[in-house]
Each structure stands twice: as C-alpha cells, then as structure tokens.
Write a structure and sequence with these properties.
Structural class: alpha+beta
CATH topology of the largest domain: Umud Fragment, subunit A
Number of strands: 9
Radius of gyration: 28 Å
CATH superfamily of the largest domain: Umud Fragment, subunit A
Number of helices: 9
CATH architecture of the largest domain: Ribbon
Shape: flat
Strand content: 15-25%
Largest sheet: 9 strands, mixed
Strand order of the largest sheet: 2-1-3-4-9-5-6-7-8
C-alpha cells in the first residue's frame, strides 16, 4: 500500500510540474527519452519512474530528487519559502536616477555582465549613462538596450526598453514582457506563467515560442516590467516611405512626359 501511495504521489507531483510549465505529455516524454504511454503510466501512478528518469525530471524543473520523492516538507515550510520570495526583492537602489533631470539609468547590452555583479552598488549605478524619458513618474524606472531580435514581435535589436522595477514576483502578470536579472544573465522575454505555489516563472521569446525557459523565484535578483520603448526601426520606416514617395513622384513625372509626347504626336498627325 505504501508503495502504491508513493507511486501516486510522485506521479501527481510530476503532473503538477508539467501542467504548471505548460508542457504536454509528449513533450516531456521526448525530453526524458521514453514513450508517451510510458510517461502517462508514471503520472497515473501505475509505474514507478527509474532513477534516471527522476533525475532528468528534477533537472528540467530545477527540483531535487528528494523533492520529487517526498514533496514539500510541510505547509509552514512553503509559507516561509513564499516569504523569502518577498524579502529578497527589496528594490535597493532602484530609485537612483541618471545624470540629468528626467534621466533614467541606461544599461547597454555590453555592460550586462558588469551590471549583474554591481547592480546593488550605488556608486556603479551613478556612473552609468543616463537616458531621458518623458515619464512624469520615473521612480524605479530603468532603461535596457535590446540585444538581438529574440523578441522581434515587440522589440528590435538596438531598441531601448524602459521598464519599471517590480518588488515582488507576486506582482508579475502573464503575457507581459519583463527584464529578469539572474546571477548569470539579463533576460528580456515574455512571461507566460508565474506560479506562486511552485515559485516558478516560465518565459518565452518571440523567435521560438516553443522553447520555454524555466526560472525559479529564488534564482532572480531583479524583476523589471516593460512600460515602453524607443526604437530606431521607426526612423528606418520613415526613410523607406520617403524613398517610396520620391520614386512615385519620378514615375508621375515620367508619365506626364509620356502623355505630353502622345498629345504632341496626336496633334501632328491631325495637322497632316
């Protein structure tokens, strides 16, 4: 009976993690290198997963082997974990402004590694480039330069993203673009799931919506929600429009000349 309960409990935990992450059984089974029917039996509690499968599942969801076997210790433990999520995002130095009036600190793409290491140092932040914005309230605002076209539906390479500091992961709203600062990288992607119970964020890029990234709350240093952007793409669009208008005007001029020549020719033929 205990063995049966263990299988069911492990299967339920694996199913909950999969649903929270938005994966299908087929997707997870492929990652685990087992058949979908085999994986389905594990979730149903009819089959005990192998040690290798459990280790792979733990790696996919950033859980431990022990957690998959036994789950959270108790409700009080989960409450303490949720409290730690709140306390780790103090918003320290997020109100420091750029050099000029109305400026916010701009983090260039090449400066991201230094920013990750020094984001809590006021002297480092005060030395960064400022970026002027028309926002009336610039409290907790920061500017980030976009690197690459991973978010091509919303952002382009070289865009300046203006984002406001979120002091708690509980305030994250799904389907919005965020700047997520971890211990190793600055991520600009769209959050599709933010689950408080498991303390997990799932985000995707526009370039490959099927390639989901899983980040745990306790792996985050900062959270910034996108509020606006400055893009160079608009100026290129205007240049393209101006070029099109110029070509159109030349075409009209050429057409007018052809019409004039036709009229002249018709007049000459009439006179003959």
């Amino acid at each position: 009976m205990q063995e049966m309960l263990s299988k069911i409990s492990i299967g339920n935990r694996m199913k909950d993690l999969r649903l929270q992450s938005g994966f299908s059984q087929a997707e997870i089974a492929k990652r685990l290198n087992i058949s979908r029917s085999n994986y389905s039996q594990i979730e149903l509690g009819n089959q005990f997963p192998t040690f290798e499968v459990l280790c792979r599942v733990a790696s996919i969801y950033s859980k431990t082997y022990e957690w998959l076997l036994h789950g959270p210790l108790d409700k009080a433990g989960m409450n303490k974990q949720q409290f730690s999520y709140e306390s780790q995002f103090s918003g320290k130095h997020s109100d420091i402004q750029g050099c000029g009036s109305g400026d916010v600190i701009l983090i260039r793409s090449e400066d991201r590694p230094c920013y990750i290491k020094n984001s809590e140092r006021a002297d480092f932040l005060q030395q960064q480039e400022g970026f002027a914005v028309p926002w009336a309230d610039t409290t907790h605002l920061r500017a980030f330069e976009v690197d690459g076209n991973a978010m091509r539906n919303a952002l382009c390479h070289g865009d300046i993203l203006i984002a406001r500091r979120i002091l708690s992961p509980l305030d994250i709203t799904n389907q919005s673009v965020y700047v997520l600062v971890t211990e190793s990288e600055v991520i600009i992607e769209r959050v599709i799931v933010s689950n408080v119970t498991s303390g997990v964020i799932i985000c995707v890029s526009d370039a490959d919506p099927l390639d989901r990234r899983i980040i745990y709350f306790n792996g985050l240093k900062e959270i910034w929600k996108a509020e606006g952007k400055y893009s160079k793409v608009l100026s290129r669009m205007v240049e393209n429009v101006n070029s099109y208008i110029s070509r159109f005007e030349l075409s009209i001029s050429a057409l007018e000349q052809e019409i004039a020549e036709i009229k002249k020719s018709m007049g000459t033929n009439s006179a003959g």
